Amino acid sequence: MRTVERESARTGRRLQLDRAAQWFAGSQGDPYGLVLRAGEADPLPHEERVREHGPLFHSALLDTWVTGSRRTAEAVAADDALTALTHGDGAEARAGAAGTALPADRALGAAEGVLADLPDGTLDLGPLARRLAARMVGVWLDVPGPLRPAFEAALTGCRHALDARWCPQTLADERLRVSAETELGSVLTEALGVPGTDSDTVTAVRALAVAAAEPTAVLLCNTVTELLERPGLWAALAADPDLAGAAVAETLHWAPPVRLEGWRVREATRIAGADLSAGARLVVLVAAANRDTGDTPDGGFDLVRRARSGGPVSVGWSTGAHPAGPFVRTAAEAGLRALVRRLPAPAAAGPAVRRRRSPVLRAFGELPVDPTGAEHGR
User: Fold this and answer.
1) pLDDT digit of tens for each residue in the chain (378 aa)?
2) Least CB-packed of 2, 42, 73, 282 within 10 Å?
3) Of 200, 191, 195, which is closest to residue 149 (Cα–Cα)?
4) What's the pTM value of the predicted model, to 2 decimals?
């Protein structure tokens, strides 16, 4: 017991020290430190300050290069001297489903199964979206039916995992995450019929599942939020469900579910006029780079433009370069189609609450939705 307590104390101190470093950087005016502080407020002002520093900003206190420039982000992605950290250690690429999308009909069927028995009254779309995502990931990875409930519960418990790579979580959330990842490994070991939870196969599939689930839930919630904030867009989607793809694509551009994309410099290289040595870290602020339209007028979120012409080109994770990217886009579209069928005229039922310590995802703590809009003037 004392060993467990000592280990817990060491973990708590490490989390506190790492968090203190981010807070100190932010207190010194470092915009990247302020991004990583990750309160409930929109990080857009801090992201814009990074861009004001030029194509590549060096956060000296956090020893990280950061960019919100589209051109620099594209140069980073094309440079063979850099390795993407946000994509994991490469293990997930060995999973059979990596780089593929769940067929649309199977994704829609899974989503509709979750929505079949919604309770009356106001819905909290945050946890509901996580259930939808976990169900679709289970179908995508062919998890056997009897193991699905345990798989979905464990995967939902891993919701802090992607943010934990960049922002220290509370000790309680860190314990829950570790426990959930352990349980997810156990379920996958049984599902895949392989010996040992530490096998390469289990590691690969677990990484892929975690990389897919919460971004799918966040992308779905972001899309619903964008639509409900603009009068008439949900009605237009209900009248033409084929607009779901355009809605998700536009949200990927303006409110992507993965906002920080990390890179490690393997070999010395030159990016945006700066010499980066081997071992250096670089972060692309994906949402900021997408907003960096250059000479193209910035019209903001525009579903009609996206449906007609495809809209502006996005950079980073949302382009599908991540092994889970194709799945996330297809799954979010299926979830949106299922919601439109089930909720033809919803309305926001209160302010959305973003989870603290979520700089990568800006995940939702609460997203209350009135299914009929009757109580909110619809």
Assistant:
1) 567 677 778 888 999 999 999 999 999 999 999 999 998 899 999 999 999 999 999 999 999 999 999 999 999 989 999 988 854 443 444 445 666 788 999 999 999 999 998 888 899 999 999 999 999 999 999 999 999 999 999 999 999 999 999 999 999 999 999 999 999 999 999 999 888 767 888 998 999 999 999 999 999 999 999 999 998 999 999 999 999 999 999 999 999 999 999 999 999 999 999 999 999 999 999 999 998 875 444 568 888 889 888 888 888 765 656 788 889 999 999 999 999 999 999 999 999 999 999 999 999 999 999 998 755 555
2) 2
3) 191
4) 0.93
Length of the chain: 378
Residue position matching structure tokens 């006029």: 273
Name the residue type at position 122: T
Look at the block and give the residue holding tokens 């999308």.
101
